[in-house]
Fold:
Amino acid sequence: MARLKISLSYMLLALLAGPVAADSTRQPTHELTLGNGLKVIVREDHRAPVVVSQLWYKVGSSHEPPGQTGISHALEHMMFKGSKNLGPGESSRVLRSLGAEENAFTSRDYTAYYQVLSRDQLPIALEMEAERMHTATLPEDEFIREMEVIKEERRLRVDDNPNSLAYERFLTQAHIASPYSQPVIGWMHDIERLTVDDLRAWYQTHYQPGNAVLIIVGDVTLDEVKPLVDSYFAPIPAGQIPEHKRPLDLPGGAERQVTLHLDVQLPSLLLSFNVPSLSTAENAWEVHALRLLSGVLDSGYSARLASRLERGNAIATSASASYSGFARGDTLFTLSGLPNQALDISLEQLEQAFWAEIDELKSTPPSAAELTRVKTQLIAADVYARDSIAHQATQMGQLESVGLPWQLIEEDQQALESISAQQVSDVAQRYLTRERLTRGHVLPAATAPSTEAARPEQEESN
Structure:
């Protein structure tokens, strides 16, 4: 009876997902490019008198040269510190007075600024965003103060957070040949030596109309938006578009391991495999198969890691899998977990359990019912998330910023549904191999070997 209820639930989800996804593809979406190179995408969603405006720049930490890590994130902070006609923080005060929501974020591949506000206030947001694109002042006194804020942000989020610090260090090994090894916030020694002139040069190079995408989603039409965009953004001169090369990683050749002794309470395991993204894969289906492989392992209560490693043999107190195929360069497929200390399980035993699950998927494809469940979960989650206009805008902005067309959103359901169980097994065989593996052991600092015992004998000086 329980199995019947579960099957009916998934059938209901599938029925719900189909019509909603179909409706979303019919949302009027318009695309245009201004003479200066700025790409503009307008999607109509008339359910509420609200609009979201997002301006995405194709620059992030993976574009940064050695010695200037963190400069994209630092510039994001400084973009709120004034422009030709607005003083430091003034744009934020205006938006807050209108009841608008605004913020910004920096990632490895892009930097984005957004506002969520009433449809009649869109001209204000666009005018201020256009001014910031072209005439940000980046005053030195504000820079000096803001860099101290960024240093403290790094301390709180990374240096004083053992788990974040562990993952940051782990990525330096997992992305051995890729700039994805660099932290978005930057290394502290680079943050300390950035200058305001560095930021001004970075701004002049990357904050160009042709290196940006403007996404507007909400209760608007193209006829309403186009005159606003023409008025505020079209006069900005077209600058030289910087060249972008995709971050590529080594396909294999060596198994790597990093052991970190940090101030953590429990030991943890990280297993990451170098894999392609949709931007770098030879065949797009492989990326969607990897997404489903991640879901088979970790997509809720019924997934294999939860049902077998956490509840079944209780070898792990937590076990997860993660993969994001929508990146500018090669990426990672990651398994992570905490061994069950109550049963005295070691990191090595937990890794063996992970490999057992991988090997089973390599030799035996998931069942049709299991794969259908995972597909339904992924599709339904995306359909429900599209209730948010901000989510819709973010999906399109992320794709466009990494060099992928926004139309992939509308094709995603079909792409997932077309993947077979054998293809899921095939990508496990091809990509989850030891020559692509980076292993991370994160151990409590108390378990570190004695420095006295490890110290080599000193040579006598003559």
